[in-house]
Amino acid sequence: MKVYELSAESGRKWVWFFTVEGPVIPMTYGEIVEFFKQQPRIRIDRNTETTPKTSKAKLADYSNLDYTPTPVFSDRAKNILGPHIDSLGQWLRLECSEEPYWLFNITNVVNAMDESRSELLRFAHGGVMRIARFAFDPERLRGQLVFTPSQRPSAHNLVTDEFVKLVEQHKLTGFHFKLLWSDEEGSHVAKAA
Fold first, then answer.
1. Predicted TM-score of the model (pTM)
2. Does pLDDT of 120 surpass 80?
3. Is residue 192 part of a domain?
């Protein structure tokens, strides 16, 4: 089994987005959950800083909004992946003039980390400030596709190799998977973001 950090593929190959009109996406888990429940109207457009209108960048199945970690899926990706992940998060439709896109908040908070083999940087009060090295208990990962760790909910969008296989099987574009951990080899990243 493998665990990856999910993000949008960087570079100028794919279009990224920015908010034209609507509220700013909050950063803490509880605030994000409430934000999605309120169903705010968010209008988006191309992020011309990363992909100018004159660029040859294409619309991808996975993108980025305002450089936040919150996943952004195309309508096609939502239709393909939705049946597998609908119960693991909240969807919010984004208004885009080019193509329908969806923001996805992962609400599947899983306590699967092996803290004794992970490297957690803590605040003075004991809360986790940052996860610098990931290690997991394979038993607690069984059946997981998409999740966020209980030690830092919403700070990391994590997926297992089963999710990666779905993306590859359907040839979805724009996804970047950074390998964090493997049950065979342990941590693959000296310092994770």
1. 0.89
2. no
3. no
